[in-house]
Amino acid sequence: MTYEYILIQTEQKVGLVQFNRPRALNALNREMVSETVAALESFDRDPGVGCMVITGSERAFAAGADIKQMAQATPVDMLDNPFIDYWDRLRRLNKPVIAAVSGFCLGGGCELAMACDMIIASESAQFGQPEINLGVIPGAGGTQRLTRAVGKALAMEMVLNDRRLSADEAARFGLVNRVVPTESYLAEAMKFAAQIAARAPVAIRLAKEAINAVYEMPLQAGLAYERRLFYMLFATEDQKEGMDAFVNKRPANWQGK
Ligand code: DAK
Questions:
Q1: Quick check: pTM over 0.85?
Q2: pLDDT per residue over 56-94, tens digit each?
Q3: 63 C-alpha vs ligand 1 centroid, how far in Å?
Q4: 65, 115, 121, 170: which is the annotated catalytic residue?
Q5: Over the stretch 189-241, which tens digit does the pLDDT of each residue have?
Q6: Contacting residues for 158 by C-beta, under 8 A, at least 6 apart
Q7: Is 108 among the residues known to form the active site?
Q8: Which of 111, 149, 151 shows the shortest CA–CA distance to 130?
Q9: 168 C-alpha vs ligand 1 centroid, how far in Å?
Q10: What are the DSSP calls for 100-115, one per residue?
Q11: Cα 69 to averaged position of ligand 1 atoms, centre (Å)
């Protein structure tokens, strides 16, 4: 498969998608988002991939959805816009997805990063939901995921008054996992992803599923759900292998079975 707006590669069981619209600061046009989701789905099906990374450039992860593409849209155009379906498909990926963010991470770009499972930020990353400047509000999860991540007070400021977060602030408020030097942010994210990709694949998949279920379920239902997934792992060869390896003081050899 060849792509026009993204670059892809696989390294140490990590599938990498890199946005490639640098002159438009990786503004997310429909085609780029569609290609991104198709590439991630293909990595998700590939047994040689255990974790995925999405990134942009050092200057911009993504400066939002493509304003030029939607400037003249009617409500029905927006309703028909497949943009939001892509986000739902992202949510259905089984393997973990890490956003490696540098520079501008705004609007739909911030919403995309928040739809990933983890975020590694470069020191120069800047997070924001500036849609209010365009006379609209976030439409791909910004009011919901941001509020869950940073709390109501700060989310209100960010969405109502275009308050931007520096990388350090984003780490302090729990939006990102960690901040790393700008010159090595992608290498750091790839290294982190490779560590996850080297772990027991079925357990990784169910761990991601259980944590994401927190947003969908009351506590008792979540605890019961977690327990069922936990019991299910005792049907895997990897559980026998992992525990045998521990008992016999040797490294485990995961098969994803
Ligand atoms: N869209 C299109 N082009 C963009 C863009 C964007 N979001 N952001 C930047 N560009 C383009 C600029 O137009 C410029 O192109 P040329 O004029 O050179 O052709 C080029 O990138 C460089 O940008 P600047 O010249 O502006 O660069 P600066 O360094 O001066 O400023 C900036 C960088 C990131 C501060 C600035 O470009 C900026 O404010 N950009 C817009 C940020 C923004 O408002 N983002 C939110 C977009 S709205 C949906 C759900 C959600 C959404 C859509 C649909 N559905 C449910 C269907 C999401 C909406 C959004 O994200």
A1: yes
A2: 999 999 999 999 999 999 999 999 888 888 988 999 999
A3: 5
A4: 65
A5: 999 999 999 999 999 999 999 999 999 999 999 999 999 999 999 999 999 99
A6: 128, 129, 146, 150, 164, 165
A7: yes
A8: 111
A9: 23
A10: EE-BEEETHHHHHHHH
A11: 11
With a 6 A CB cut-off, is 65 part of the ligand 1 pocket? yes
Q: For the segment 33-51, what is each residue's pLDDT rounded down to a tens digit?
A: 999 999 999 999 999 999 9
**Contacts of 75 by beta carbon, 8 Å cutoff, 6+ apart:** none
Decide: 132 in ligand 1 pocket, CB within 6 A: no
List the domains of the chain with CATH numbers. Answer: 6-197 (3.90.226.10), 201-247 (1.10.12.10)
27 lines ligand 1 (CB under 6 A): yes
Residues 6+ apart with CB under 8 A from 217: 225
